[in-house]
Design brief:
The protein is of the alpha+beta class. The protein has one domain. 31% of the residues lie in helices and 43% in strands. It has two helices and three strands, in the order E-E-E-H-H. It has a three-stranded antiparallel sheet. The longest helix has 13 residues. The termini are far apart. The relative contact order is 0.22.
Length: 77
């Protein structure tokens, strides 16, 4: 069993041009549920970010690669 978990993060943001919106991000949690890494406001597409979280969990991505992989996911979309 993996000692790391990736989950989606939902937050409300304020932007001066578009107003209030919901943005989704990813968070990396250790076995105790402690948030170790967080990447906020990656997309307004909830399903896309959920797919990314599933992929990271399926691949059992090591925490050390989290930000590099998040950057790759953003560039690939």
């Amino acid at each position: 069993m993996s000692d790391q978990t990736y989950k989606t993060l939902q937050q409300t943001f304020q932007h001066e041009e578009v107003g209030e919106y919901i943005g989704y991000g990813l968070q990396a949690l250790d076995a105790d549920g402690k948030v170790l890494h967080r990447a906020e406001d990656l997309s307004t597409d909830e399903e896309l970010v959920r797919q990314w979280a599933r992929l990271l969990n399926e691949e059992q991505l090591e925490f050390v690669h989290f930000f590099e992989v998040v950057e790759d996911l953003l560039l690939a979309r």
